[in-house]
Amino acid sequence: MPPLSRLLSINKSDEPPRRERRKEARPGELLGAALDLFVEKGFAATRAEEVAARAGVSKGTLFLYFPSKEELFKAVVRESITGRFNEWNAEFESFEGSTGDMLRYCMNTWWERIGATKASGITKLMMSEASNFPELAIFYQQEVMTPAHQLIGRVLQRGIDRGEFRQIDMAYAIFSVIAPLTFLVMWKHSLGACQPIGLPALVPEQYIASQVDMLLHGLSVRPTNENPKK
Amino acid sequence: MPPLSRLLSINKSDEPPRRERRKEARPGELLGAALDLFVEKGFAATRAEEVAARAGVSKGTLFLYFPSKEELFKAVVRESITGRFNEWNAEFESFEGSTGDMLRYCMNTWWERIGATKASGITKLMMSEASNFPELAIFYQQEVMTPAHQLIGRVLQRGIDRGEFRQIDMAYAIFSVIAPLTFLVMWKHSLGACQPIGLPALVPEQYIASQVDMLLHGLSVRPTNENPKK
Amino acid sequence: MPPLSRLLSINKSDEPPRRERRKEARPGELLGAALDLFVEKGFAATRAEEVAARAGVSKGTLFLYFPSKEELFKAVVRESITGRFNEWNAEFESFEGSTGDMLRYCMNTWWERIGATKASGITKLMMSEASNFPELAIFYQQEVMTPAHQLIGRVLQRGIDRGEFRQIDMAYAIFSVIAPLTFLVMWKHSLGACQPIGLPALVPEQYIASQVDMLLHGLSVRPTNENPKK
Amino acid sequence: MPPLSRLLSINKSDEPPRRERRKEARPGELLGAALDLFVEKGFAATRAEEVAARAGVSKGTLFLYFPSKEELFKAVVRESITGRFNEWNAEFESFEGSTGDMLRYCMNTWWERIGATKASGITKLMMSEASNFPELAIFYQQEVMTPAHQLIGRVLQRGIDRGEFRQIDMAYAIFSVIAPLTFLVMWKHSLGACQPIGLPALVPEQYIASQVDMLLHGLSVRPTNENPKK
DNA sequence: AATGAATGAGTATTCATTCAT
DNA sequence: AATGAATGAATACTCATTCAT
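ok -> structure tokens follow
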């Protein structure tokens, strides 16, 4: 049944809608727009039409590529995860130099490749929506968190083995790397965008430098004078 | 008008809402139920009827106390934030002992009073919903983050002044306290609930102990052998 | 989130919408309206809002009582079927008189109780939508067609046993009763409503009288002069 | 322009549509596919893309031949109805033999040429969709029902005139021929496809034989012993 | 005060139809 | 002529909010 407005030849504006054919590019454009909006507003508060509009297509086109909003969400998460650790593992396998430098390089590189890009939104997304998408949360744990733990664990172990780092409880020490980075992206995607006037903004590079500095001090083998009684 | 203690009762414990009818308790029960659900599912994905049901009242009653779902959300945040730092400031003003012990006490106490209780959900909420409620985010920054920064800043400064901690960039060092604690509540309320089988669970007390340990090492005045070239 | 028009207090007409509370009566009213519309336009072409409007309620109310349009359809069919044959079986069990009279009474009564009422629409519905609702079609076969076959079969057998009717192939003879009645309701709900000008309308009572007459002639024991060679 | 025989090909057989590309056959294949689907699912529940797919062409091609789904429906009905009675009238005009045989031949032939073929779907369609397409219903009445009435009327009148049939109310007696045949196609296209296990299936040829038998008995001139009191 | 039936704007999704290729 | 990507009006369904009881 043709829409009434079309039968009556009603055209609100002079510019006809652009009907570009970009089948190859569509999914990527839609995933990008969806990532932006899901990160910014959350899954439930993001309207499908908004995603389509930001990707420059109509509502219908979105559903041409993703069968439902939920599948779109899953695709957004999977897209940003797929095959990200393989390259990293190789890269750090061949790293030469002190493990301290390695850790610093590791965290700075993470910022450049993940933290500073849209991909960091995935972390925000999962933290915010995990309980609404339990299967995805487990998938994320397996595909992202576990490999990340392993990679960091290997770096720390290298430092200990080479006598650069002190003995630590590895399972929890890993969080000393993960926590500040995770906090950074959460901050960037939430309160960081609502900086109240008067407070100095958090500069990511400086934040990371400070965290690395504190971490390397914390891992150093020299005894501290802190808590001598303990 | 319900007594303030009732209104604030959601901060005190995790005990499930009582289904017995105590008229004066209604707003508090609703706020408690709302906090639970908003934290778990987000603002948009939480249905008003669900909140009412969990509070043991009917849908209509919810709107008797709160004019809209949005106002309910704001009330949840505001109630949970109200003046927590006055007592804390006083408490730590009178603290005697090493600043290291003070910092450890500080972080452990935060876990007992905030992190382990429903109140920690507010942090999760604000991180997740900040961009949907910018005014609340600014309110949160002013009422929670800024006082927290100041309190932590004062503790760290005490350590430096007393020669216990090394010289650091205060603005960023504060994040070395805030980041791990914030990460903990985010984790607890999101991915931590979706532990994939086979991985060891994160035990909050041990996590905090580890973070404190690393932090105090990182703040210690002794030089490290890390990056001797630098 | 309150609808914008309500926040702005836009009221298009002076008469406020009637908010009658009629929980008991709603399902019946909705089923009645749905039967009308499904019969008239088919399942797919009937809009849920239309059903609600004809029942004098809003869209939302419909879904308060029936979880989906499909469930509404099923309820419509089931409602018109439930416990219809019990009374009939008893009634005809106690019939006294010739079986011819019985059959005439049977078909006239069917018209009064079913054919002339909205219930006849169910037959039209099932004939039109059977392949869209296969499970319902089977349900209808079991709950309506099979009992009807049995009832008619018992009547015809009575006539044969009493020597009033000739020997016939019972399985197919039953259709000599069912077919004309089914045709009548199909006609009434379809082409009968589109009588082209100039043609005489089909008067149900006369149609049934004619069919009964033909049927009883057809069942009579006297030999016919038709097809003597056969 | 495809030859008429192609356009009408849907009336001739039930053979599945050929997927090989014969450009000239497109409209016919589309009409065939459309008839199948409209009959099976109804107009509203049939998707244009499905019709195209079954005809082995793309969605766009359908609208190349038919300006809208509604026009496609009308074309399906019109094509299937076109002039069928001229040949029949001539055929039966020249029939020799008893009118009983004529009527039997007539009904059997109808089954072979119409009832057993896809063309019978048109009857199902009109019965189901008449109220959604009143103009088509009137068209159908004029082109199919009225000629059919006249043809049957002439046959019955021949029997009466020749003393083979008893006096009857012609207008209604005609329905004694039409009703069982119409019922048969409705059954075949609806509930007949949902035979519940355990029940014997309706065999069309036997059904027709039974109906003819009953009809000829009913039309016979010999008095019956039925209702002697009346 | 409390209830829960009723409302209707809003949203995901479908699908007839268009049009660039 | 044919394709199928793109469109957007239409529709089922949800849920915050209202209000008669």
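Residues 83-219 of chain B form a domain with the Tetracycline Repressor; domain 2 fold (CATH 1.10.357).
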